[in-house]
Amino acid sequence: MSTQSAVIVGVGPVSIEDVVAVARHGAPIELSAESRAEVARSRRIIEELANDPVPHYGISTGFGALATKHIPTDKRRRLQHGLVASHAAGSGDAVEREVVRALMLLRISTLATGRTGIRPETLDAYVAMLNAGITPCVREYGSLGCSGDLAPLAHCALALMGEGEVYDGDGAQVPAAQALAAAGITPVVLEEKEGLALINGTDGMLGMLCLAIHDLRMLLATADVTAAMSVDGLLGTDDVFAADLHRLRPHPGQATSAANLRKLLADSGIRESHRDPSACTRVQDAYSLRCSPQVHGAARDTLAHATAVAERELAAAIDNPVVTLDGRVESNGNFHGAPVAYVLDFLAIAIADVASISERRTDRFLDVARSNGLPPFLADDPGVDSGHMIAQYTAAGIVSELKRLAAPASVDSIPSSAMQEDHVSMGWAAGRKLRRAVDGLQRVLAIELLTAARGIRLRAPLQPSAPIASVLQSLDAGRPGPDRYLAPEIERAYDLITDGGVLAATGIPLD
């Protein structure tokens, strides 16, 4: 049972933080009284149209290229069931639980606006399924990111009907009917319009965007920490991070990164050891050190743009057709995922570049010609020992993959539904590769953290700043010495990054 406070759905849009709380930490959700009333009101509109002899799309017609076919009343339950069952056509590995929970929350959020015409009892069942920890088995492939994330959402709707496979609260894969019965939830029999209401949204790609934004806020601050450690360990200068220099180029993200680096390097004994220009022959540092705020800052500004897009999408009510505030039921194109797809791709580009500059800083520690007095590869006995030679290979391999993942999915389109849906966003694919990119960045930063820690320790008796010293103390890895099994040390550094331990260890606020 989650100890998280309940997220109230239906009073304004859910936030990125709400998505993370529900998707990743199991927070329950509750529907507001206002949303219940609006859902009931819009459902009455749908029921009136269902009895109209004039065909209405999604209510008394077929779908997509079959929208011109009128469906008689006695076949409409079959129509809705068949829509969901046929659209639950995903393939490949199961998608991560947190992505599916995010998708479910965001669909519920739209349903709760009253703009979809769903029945209150159907919405209540969906909420109960999410709160019970029942996670439908959604497959990797199936969404083109237009008409919504159809296949992923259809797999969730199928589970709501008591069909297909789900993971229960313990993570065991079981038939949906069994999981619903155990949770005391009656499978839903869909009525007019409900099939479309359950599957027509950008919820999958938006859920992945929200999770990525949350993770990247932490990772970009962590990148400032690893950069500061590299600057210190490589006997770089903090003069280039002065506030007045960055005011000359007023990008907000750059200013934030430079401020973080100043705080992290303040009162470093290593820095003071070579501050005298008569004793330091280097005129300026390499770009990977000197330009860290410019690269990290540009990524921050990209993240700010992506956040603005995500917040606008979180405030949206996406369905087709949609019930307007004045009671009309209108077809529209708001399900097209282009706005979300673009920023998913944009973030993958920024990630690739932040990882690239991190790997270059790592590499400088290992090259005796560029490390300013450190042993080759930080090895204990160079030649006998290889030190961090192959850790850099790992980082380089990941960076190379991140560059491939930065190739945008959203520039592609492939027609579907007999050319009725002739331009699609590929936003789901953009979200899937972004998740892999976020993980890759965490691993590249972990290798820089590990390498910089070893380099700084080799500068003893010189000591780094207090924040960096605290990070070293929290990192049970990256110590000098003879060669040893390195993979577990990389994983420990990775874990310290992903759980926020690096930022917490600095003991200072970083933006």
Automatic annotation (TrEMBL):
Name assigned to this protein: Histidine ammonia-lyase
Q: Name one GO molecular function term.
A: histidine ammonia-lyase activity
Hey, which family's this protein in?
Belongs to the PAL/histidase family.
What's the catalysed reaction?
A: L-histidine = trans-urocanate + NH4(+)
Q: What class of enzyme is it?
A: lyase
Q: Does the keyword Cell wall biogenesis/degradation apply?
A: no
Q: Which GO terms describe its biological process?
A: L-histidine catabolic process
The superkingdom of the source organism is Bacteria
* E.C. code: 4.3.1.3
**Cell compartments where the protein resides:** Cytoplasm
- Entries under Gene3D superfamilies matching the protein: Fumarase/aspartase (Central domain) (1.20.200.10), Fumarase/aspartase (N-terminal domain) (1.10.275.10)
NCBIfam families per the UniProt record, alphabetical: hutH (TIGR01225), PRK09367.1 (NF006871)
